[in-house]
Amino acid sequence: MNKRIPFLAPVLGVVMAGLWCQGESRGQVNERGTPAPFGARISAELQSIQDIYTNYPSVMWCPACVTSSPPCRVACYMVDMTAIARFNFEVANEYPSPRTLHFNDGQRCELELRDQSGTVVAAWSDGKSFTQALNSLTIEPGQRASFVLEIPLKDREGKQLNGSYLVQAYLLTSTPGLQRRSTAVTQISVALAPQAAERSDDESGTEMDSGGPSRAAR
Question: Counting Cβ atoms within 10 Å, is residue 166 exposed (0-12), middle (13-18) or buried (19+)?
C-alpha cells in the first residue's frame, strides 16, 4: 500500500542518480534565461519492494568441519536475521527546463522510519559517512532522479522493529523551496517471528551452506 505525493502531471524517463545518492551535474536556465521558480513542478514518489516484513531471531551458525582427524574445532557465529527493507525513491522534474539541485555534502537524500507516535526510530544514514564536499545534480525535463535505499528493520539501539511504520524519504538539497516538494511517504508493517520458529528450524536438521543464512528482505 504505497503512497505518493504527486505535484502535477505524470513524468517520463528515468535518470539514475546512484545507490549512494552521489554524482555530478551542470546548472542550466530556462528559455527566458532565468532560473526556474523554486520548487516549481517537482514531484516525488516512494515505493517499498514489499509492504510486510518479518524479523527473525538471531541464529548460531557453525561452518562444516573440514578435517577427518578429531577433535574438530571450528568457530561458531551469531547471525543477525533482521529483515532488510528496500525502497525506490524518485524525484521528477516536470518543468520544461533542467533543474539543478545543490547539496552541501555527499549525502543527497534521507529515509526515515517513524513509529506511530511520530518518533524517528531509524534512518538510512545511521552509521554511514559521506564526503564533505559541495556537489550538484541536474534533472532534465521530463526525467527523474532515482535512488535505491536499503535499511535494516531495527531501531538505533539495535532492537528489531515490530509494528507499523511510516517511511519518509526526501532530498537534502540546499536549493531553496525544493526539500519540501521532494518529500514522499509510504508505510510498511514489520512482524516478529515467534521463538518457536527458530527451535523448529534447529530440530529439522536443515543444513546451511558455507555462506551462512541470508538476512535479505522477508
Answer: middle
Per-residue pLDDT band for 217 (boundaries 50, 70, 90) equals low
Q: Are 150 and 86 in contact (CB under 8 A)?
A: yes
Q: Is residue 61 part of a domain?
A: no
Tally the domains of the chain. 1
For the chain, the C-alpha Rg in angstroms (whole number) is: 22
135-161 tens-digit pLDDT: 999 999 999 999 999 999 999 999 999
DSSP-assigned letter for residue 89: E
Cell numbers describing residue 60: 548460531
Contact in structure between 174 and 103 (CB atoms under 8 Å):
yes
Beta pairing class for 77-79 and 144-152 = unpaired
Domain range holding 40? Answer: 4-55+82-200
Tell me if 147 is assigned to some domain: yes
| Residue from 79, 87, 77 nearest 56 by CA | 79
- For residue 76, tell me if it sits in a domain: no
CATH code where residue 111 lies: 2.60.40.2360
- Cα 102 to its chain centre, rounded Å, is 21
C-beta neighbour count of 93 within 10 angstroms: 26
75 belongs to a structural domain = no
Beta strands in the chain (DSSP E): 4-5, 15-16, 42-48, 52-55, 59-61, 77-79, 84-93, 99-103, 109-114, 120-123, 135-139, 144-152, 163-171, 183-192
